[in-house]
Amino acid sequence: MRPLNRTSHHRGLHRMRGFSFTMRKAHPTDVNQFMTLIALADPDHPDPYGEAREFVLTRHGAPLEGEGLLALVAVDETGKLVGALLAGIPKWVFTHVGIPTQFEIPLSRRVANVHGVAVHPEYRYKGVGRSLIRQAEEEFKAAGWRVMTLEHPAHLDDYYARLGYTNHNAIVVNLPSSLISVRIDDTRVSARSLHPRARLASVFGIPGPVINGLLPGTDMPENAWFDGRRLRS
Ligand SMILES: CC(C)(COP(=O)(O)OP(=O)(O)OC[C@H]1O[C@@H](n2cnc3c(N)ncnc32)[C@H](O)[C@@H]1OP(=O)(O)O)[C@@H](O)C(=O)NCCC(=O)NCCS
């Protein structure tokens, strides 16, 4: 039997608990509503998601190109924006000191990050947040990305776990040369594989999932363990 809470999809129309909405990429005319909504995902920031404003205004037609940004909106039947999502390449790919320069570009075509997702307070618990995240996953997956990550406060652990994400204080990435640990301030860092080659493995000695298979030569043996410096099997 079909679970009651499932969102039904029909020609791009999502219907859940009597509420219908569609999703699309943000248009330049959405910019103010988009910025107001997405700010809800980082309310303490002085200029939340400032980089999204110019993107929505000028490069809306070229998602996933250049800086790899994706700005999605959910729209109700009256045309009102009820949800927003911004995703792109995680900053740590270019700033983490442990990543050799030659791996930065290849990694940036493999790892995507949901920078923020927010739903208008009156439209929560209707499947809008989940649908936006699933849509972003589909877009990046179709364009060849292998893993989706996100940063979130600990109180949303259950929310993201139900969407198939791991919840930890850090994620570890297996690179051809080394393991790197990604930790972002006090937030949780979560991940979900989008590709059969990208596997999130738990490894003895490492307190979070290890992401394998993003770059050539980084598939890890099943029995791998960490000796404090490197992987052994
Ligand atoms: C987090 C947020 C995006 C969720 O959006 P939403 O549209 O209400 O969520 P959905 O309806 O898609 O929820 C999917 C499932 O998670 C559950 N869920 C929703 N919010 C939850 C929460 N805060 N904690 C735990 N579970 C939650 C829902 O009950 C639903 O489960 P169900 O299908 O069994 O009913 C929304 O609450 C929001 O905008 N919050 C403020 C901004 C924010 O914190 N963004 C995230 C920053 S990383």
From TrEMBL:
Sequence ranges assigned to domain N-acetyltransferase in this UniProt record: 21-185
Organism: Embleya scabrispora
GO molecular function: acyltransferase activity, transferring groups other than amino-acyl groups
Pfam families the UniProt entry points to: Acetyltransf_1 (PF00583)
Name of this protein: N-acetyltransferase domain-containing protein
PROSITE patterns noted in UniProt: GNAT
